[in-house]
Design a protein that fits this description.
The structure is a homodimer. By secondary structure, the first copy, chain A, is α/β, with parallel strands linked by helices. Chain A has three domains: about 150 residues, NAD(P)-binding Rossmann-like Domain (Rossmann fold, 3-Layer(aba) Sandwich), CATH 3.40.50; about 160 residues, Dihydrodipicolinate Reductase, domain 2, CATH 3.30.360; about 80 residues, ACT domain (Alpha-Beta Plaits, 2-Layer Sandwich). The first copy, chain A, contains 13 helices and 18 strands.
C-alpha cells in the first residue's frame, strides 16, 4: 500500500484528491499496487469543506513528514515552506511529487541531487505547462538524442492578453482586466506578465533537455508590458503574430535561454496557439520538430499531470535501480549573455514628417551592418503628426542592435524610444 | 548486455541502426545497462552497403529468432513474414519492438495477449504517427482517467495532397503527382489515399485509449478521392479547411471509430496542421484537450520512436512485474454502425437554374428533420449551366441523411450525385 500525503489543499490539491478518488481503481491497476491518500495538510484546513473518514487532516504542513506516508504531493507553491517540506521529506527517504515551478527552477539543482543521493523519486510533470506531457516526453521519447532547441508559449496569462489584443482589438489594460475577471490573471499580475513564470518553466525544461544546472538566475527575462496594440497591428500586416515566448537552445558549449515577446510568422504553428492554451515546440536531431499543445493551468489539468507522476513513482520503486529518470545536471554550460545573442528584430519608432529621416535611419543601420528585410511607413496615428516607421531587420547580434538604436534615438527627428521586439527564428 | 536483432533494413532499419550507433553512450546511460545490435536481417542484405565487424548479417529473417538476441526490432512491415517472426519471437520469450501498424491493427489482439502470457515486452510507439509520442502519452500521462475522444491527422500523404490542393490550388491528380515526386506517396497510393493507413493507426490508438480489441475490421473508411478543388474552395468560404481525419470516441458501451475527409473549422488547431505533418488530438475527462504534433513518417523520425521503446523494454525487464504497459483488451464494446453515427454534413450538388429547386431541396431536408446551418448558391462554373449549391446541415443521424440525399438525387432538376463530406465536431 502506497500512502500519499497531500500538502496544500487549494484548487490543484482539491482537484488532485478528486481525481485520485474518482479513478482510484484505474490508478491502482496502472500502478500494480494499492494506493491511498492518507493525510491532507493545509494551513487553513479548518476552512475546507472536504471530509473523509479514512484521511487524516492537519494544518501543520511539516508534520506530514512525520506521518507514515511514502509520497509527499507538494501543492503549496513558492520556495519557503515548500522547500523546507520537500528537503526534509527527501532526507526522510520519502518521495516527492510537486507542481511547483519556482521550487524546481530555483532549488531544483540541490533537491534533485539530494533525491538521487537518497534514491527517492521526485516528479514534477505538473510544474511546466500543466497537462502538457512535455517532461515525460523529454525524459522518455526525446532522451536518446540531442535536443537542438525548445520554444514554448508557456504562460497562459500572457497568451490570453496578447490574443485578446489581437483578436478582439482590446488595449493592454482592457485585456488584462478581462484576464483578471476570468481568473486567468492574478490581482497582482507581475509574475506572469513580467515573464518570470515563463522563465521558471523554460529553466526546468532546459535542465532536462540539456542536462544543465538551472539557468534561472541568469536568463534574460522580458514581459509583455511594452507591447502596444499598434505593434500587434503592424506585425499582423507583415505576416506575424506577437506572442510571449520562452526559448532555449544549445550551441556547442553554450546555452542560450531567454524569455520575451516575439513576432512569430503566421505560417509557424506556434502562432496559432490561442487564448490561454500553452504549447511547447521541441526540435531534435532525429525526431525533427515536435509540438505539444494543451491546458497549461487549471485544477483538473494540473492535477492530471500530478497523478501521472504516481505511476512514475511506482516504476521507480519497482525498478529499484539508480534513479535514472531524475536528470541532474551533468554538463556545466555557460549561458550566452543577452548582448551576444542573434535575432531578427522588429523596430517601431515615431519620426517627424520631414525629408531625410528614413535615409538617416537606414544609413545608421547600414553603418552597424544591419540590413532591413521589411519596412513600412504608416500614416500618422489619429490626432498625431508623428509618422510611425516599422522595420524588420536581418539577424544581428544584440549589442550591435542596441548601439544602432541608441544612435537612432538620438536623431533630431526621431521622437521617443524605439520599440524593439525580437522575431522568432524558425529552425 | 541487451542484444538487439534488427529485422528489415530499409529506410527505417538503416535510420534505426544509425541512431543507435550515433547515440549508443546516451542510450546505454538511459537504459542503465549495455546494449548492442547483434544481428541485422534483410531479404536483400547482400545489396546493403552497411558494414560492421561486430554485427552479424543474414538474409534469413526468421533465423534471427534462433540467435541469442533479447529484442527483435521488426521493421519489415505487412502481416506475412512480420507476423510469423513476431509470433515465434514471443513464443521464444524474446521481446519485440515494431513500427508495423498493419501488424498491430490486424494481429495485435493475439500478439499482445501472447506477449502478456509470456511476460515479454512488445513496443509499438513508431506504429502510429512516427515520432509523435502519442502511444507513450496515452499509456502514461493519459492512463489514469477516461479518454473521451481521439482525432488525428495521421496520414501524411492525404494531408499533403489536401494541403497542396488548398494552398497551391492544385487539382487532386497534380497534388498526388507532387506527393509521389517528393516521396510522400507510393507508386500505388491506394493504401494511403484510400484511408486504410489512417484506419490502422486509429485502430491502434483506440485499442489503447479504450482498452478494446482492435476495431479495424469494422470501422468505416473513406479516402480523399472524392474531394474536388471546388469543395476546398467552398469550404474555405464557409470558414473551413478540408482534412483527412481519423476519429474515435467512447459513448457509454459503444465505440464510434471512423476515417474520412472532414471540414474542420479554421479556428480549430487541427485545421492548421499543414503539409505532411501529423497531429493527434485527445480529449480527456481531466486533462482537457491535448494535441501532439510532429513528423508522422521518415526514417529518422520513425527510428527515434523505435529507439524510445528500448527504454521501455529496459523498464519492463527491471520491473519484472506483470506486463502493465501492454494494454490488452479488457472491454468488449460494440462499434456504432456508420448509419447510426451523428454528424453535421457539407453537401454540394448541381442544379438546373430553374425556379423552385432550392425550395424542393430544403423541404426534402425538412421532411427528414434536417435543418440547414449555412447555404451558398454559386455562379455556374465556367462553361457550365449548372448551378452549384452548397449546404451545411445541423447534426443528424447518417441514415436520415442518406435517405434525404437519395430523394434529392432523384429530383428532376438535380444533376449527378450529391457530394457529402462530414463536418468535424469540436468537443
Amino acid at each position: 500500500m502506497i500512502k500519499i500525503g497531500v500538502c496544500g489543499f487549494g484548487t490543484v490539491g482539491q482537484s488532485f484528491v478528486d481525481h485520485v478518488l474518482a479513478y482510484q481503481d484505474k490508478i491502482i491497476e496502472n500502478c500494480g499496487r494499492e494506493i491511498c491518500i492518507s493525510i491532507i495538510a493545509d494551513r487553513s484546513i479548518e476552512k475546507k469543506k472536504f471530509k473523509s473518514e479514512s484521511i487524516q487532516f492537519t494544518s501543520d504542513i511539516l508534520s506530514v513528514n512525520n506521518s507514515d506516508c511514502d509520497v509527499i504531493v507538494e501543492l503549496i507553491g513558492g520556495t519557503d515552506i515548500a522547500y523546507d517540506l520537500v528537503k526534509s521529506a527527501i532526507l526522510k527517504k520519502k518521495s516527492v511529487i510537486t507542481a511547483n515551478k519556482a521550487l524546481i527552477a530555483e532549488k531544483g539543482d540541490e533537491l534533485l541531487a539530494l533525491s538521487k543521493e537518497n534514491n527517492t523519486y521526485i516528479g514534477y510533470e505538473a510544474s511546466v505547462a500543466g497537462a502538457i506531457p512535455i517532461i515525460n516526453t523529454l525524459k522518455h521519447n526525446m532522451l536518446n538524442e540531442s535536443i537542438i532547441s525548445l520554444s514554448g508559449i508557456i504562460n497562459g496569462t500572457c497568451n490570453y492578453i496578447l490574443d485578446q489584443m489581437s483578436s478582439e482589438r482590446k488595449g493592454f489594460k482592457e485585456a488584462l482586466n478581462s484576464a483578471q475577471e476570468l481568473g486567468y490573471a492574478e490581482a497582482d499580475p507581475t509574475f506572469d506578465i513580467g515573464g518570470f513564470d515563463a522563465a521558471h518553466k523554460i529553466s526546468i525544461l532546459s535542465m532536462i533537455a540539456f542536462e544543465i544546472p538551472s539557468p534561472y538566475e541568469n536568463i534574460h527575462i522580458e514581459g509583455i508590458e511594452s507591447i502596444d496594440s499598434m505593434d500587434i497591428d503592424y506585425a499582423n500586416e507583415l505576416g506575424y503574430k506577437i506572442k510571449h515566448i520562452a526559448t532555449a537552445r544549445s550551441n556547442n558549449s553554450l546555452i542560450e535561454c531567454k524569455v520575451h515577446p516575439a513576432l512569430i510568422n503566421k505560417k509557424n504553428i506556434l502562432s496559432k496557439i490561442d487564448g490561454v492554451m500553452n504549447a511547447v515546440r521541441t526540435v531534435g536531431d532525429k525526431f525533427g520538430t515536435s509540438l505539444l499543445y494543451g491546458h497549461g493551468a487549471g485544477g483538473a489539468a494540473t492535477a492530471s499531470a500530478v497523478v501521472s507522476n504516481i505511476i512514475d513513482y511506482c516504476i521507480h520503486v519497482d525498478r529499484n535501480v539508480k534513479n535514472i529518470s531524475n536528470s541532474i545536471a551533468v554538463h556545466r554550460k555557460d549561458l550566452v549573455t543577452i548582448e551576444d545573442t542573434f535575432n531578427q528584430y522588429y523596430l517601431r519608432m515615431f519620426a517627424n514628417d520631414v525629408p531625410g529621416v528614413m535615409a538617416n535611419i537606414t544609413s545608421t543601420l547600414a553603418k552597424h551592418k544591419i540590413s532591413i528585410e521589411a519596412v513600412t511607413q504608416h500614416e500618422p496615428l489619429e490626432n498625431e503628426k508623428l509618422i510611425p516607421i516599422v522595420m524588420i531587420t536581418n539577424s544581428v547580434v544584440f549589442k550591435d542592435m542596441l548601439s544602432a538604436i541608441k544612435k537612432i534615438e538620438s536623431m533630431d527627428n526621431i521622437v521617443g524610444k524605439v520599440n524593439l521586439i525580437r522575431v522568432f527564428n524558425d529552425d
